[in-house]
Amino acid sequence: MDEKFRLGLIYGSTRPGRLCDTVANWAMAQVRRHPAFEIEVIDPARLRRDADGRLDETDVGPRIALADAFLVVTPEYNHGYPAPLKELLDASYEPWQAKPVAFVSYGGASGGLRAVEQLRQVFVELDAVTLRETLSFTEIWEQFSAAGDLRSPERAVRRMDKLLARLQWWAGSLRDARNRRPLQQAA
Ligand SMILES: Cc1cc2nc3c(=O)[nH]c(=O)nc-3n(C[C@H](O)[C@H](O)[C@H](O)COP(=O)(O)O)c2cc1C
Known about the structure:
Domain NADPH-dependent FMN reductase-like: 6-141
Number of domains: 1
Shape: globular
Keywords: Flavoprotein, FMN
CATH architecture: 3-Layer(aba) Sandwich
GO molecular function: FMN binding; oxidoreductase activity
Structural class: alpha/beta
Radius of gyration: 16 Å
InterPro entries: Flavoprotein-like_sf, FMN_Rdtase-like_dom, NAD(P)H-dep_reductase
Organism: Solimonas fluminis
Helix content: 25-40%
Bound molecules: flavin mononucleotide
């Protein structure tokens, strides 16, 4: 039987009117063409919060723990990644360990790549493994039609297929490794 993997699709922006919905919807449609993945949406705007507005860590941790791999859909804000994404990453630790993370980024001139490079540093600290393959959209407001369709999809679809194939490889390899011996037992 073909292996199935739970893919945590993480939203980077919580801004009202965010383009993150458009980009994440497109990414989800791409993932759905790959039967190995089942999508679990992890959206900081829709997660449970306590009376002070802080993320409920007892809600976040189990969601991260269920996933075998992550796809982070993030914009760039002032050469960095959005604060709500950092809050999500900081809300748990062990559930991220020895799992692969890929990125779909977007923004203005940089296509969000500076945000991605910063996120790689954060994921190292969480013992997660970030992938080389990254899909990046520059001038994001020009890329999609009002209906949410990518205006020039060929290159993006090709890159996304390679990204997802590699993510599947990492998801399987790291799940096998975790099952053989949890990372905490290494030292
Ligand atoms: C406060 C702010 C800062 C931004 N800084 C950058 C930036 O440094 N580099 C970039 O390429 N785009 C930048 N942008 C453009 C955003 O990436 C773009 O507006 C994107 O749509 C934001 O994501 P969202 O619509 O999902 O919230 C910035 C936008 C805002 C609102």
